[in-house]
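Re: that backbone. Tokens:
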């Protein structure tokens, strides 16, 4: 702003008014939104699932509070229905831990299937050994150690002999009966007591 004559004012002002759209676009160029990480997406998904489960649980709780007799009746009918379906479809309880808890594509399962179905090995049981040691020291150096060793030996024998069978494998007694000798031979300190802990303790 400058003065040329007395009483006259010359305005020489440059008003640079920015376009709001261009200013907004400039701000967007400066702001870079980071992509959510896998952990963030996982946490978000877990929270959404948790919220959905909470809503469904709320509906169930409301129905239980409002209609307790109906809920009990439906539960009993549903249990009877499952029992009938199980009996009619040859349902059976599975107790074999190898089938229940081992992934079916694991190496142990595939190796076991190969041994049973493809290897051609005889059905007869294969011998194995259990070694009881005391890290290189004499097991029978003291009476106390000797008693501990015998208890460990009997524990191992009773664990093996008491292993239950399943739909895919025989129990210990059945395996012994299927052997060509007709019985299982146990070699070890338990044999002196006819593999009987009662006889040993008596």
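Recovered sequence:
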């Amino acid at each position: 702003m400058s003065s040329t004559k007395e009483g006259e004012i010359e305005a020489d002002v440059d008003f640079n008014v920015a376009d709001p759209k261009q200013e907004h676009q400039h701000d967007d160029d400066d702001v870079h939104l980071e992509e959510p990480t896998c952990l963030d997406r996982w946490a978000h998904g877990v929270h959404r699932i948790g919220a959905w489960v909470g809503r469904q649980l709320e509906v169930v709780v409301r129905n239980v509070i409002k209609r307790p007799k109906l809920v009990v009746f439906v539960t009993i009918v549903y249990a009877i229905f499952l029992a009938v379906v199980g009996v009619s479809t040859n349902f059976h309880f599975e107790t074999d831990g190898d089938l229940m808890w081992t992934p079916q594509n694991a190496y142990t399962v595939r190796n076991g299937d190969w041994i049973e179905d493809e290897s051609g090995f005889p059905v007869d049981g294969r011998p194995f050994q259990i070694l009881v040691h005391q890290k290189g020291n004499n097991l029978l150096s003291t009476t106390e150690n000797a008693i501990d060793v015998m208890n460990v030996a009997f524990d191992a024998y009773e664990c093996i002999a008491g292993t239950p069978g399943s739909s895919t494998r025989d129990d210990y007694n059945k395996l012994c009966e299927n052997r060509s000798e007709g019985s299982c031979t146990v070699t070890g300190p338990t044999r002196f007591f006819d593999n009987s802990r009662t006889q040993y303790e008596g």
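DSSP finds eight helices and two strands in the chain. Helices lie at 20-30, 38-66, 68-88, 97-101, 107-118, 143-161, 172-178, 197-201.
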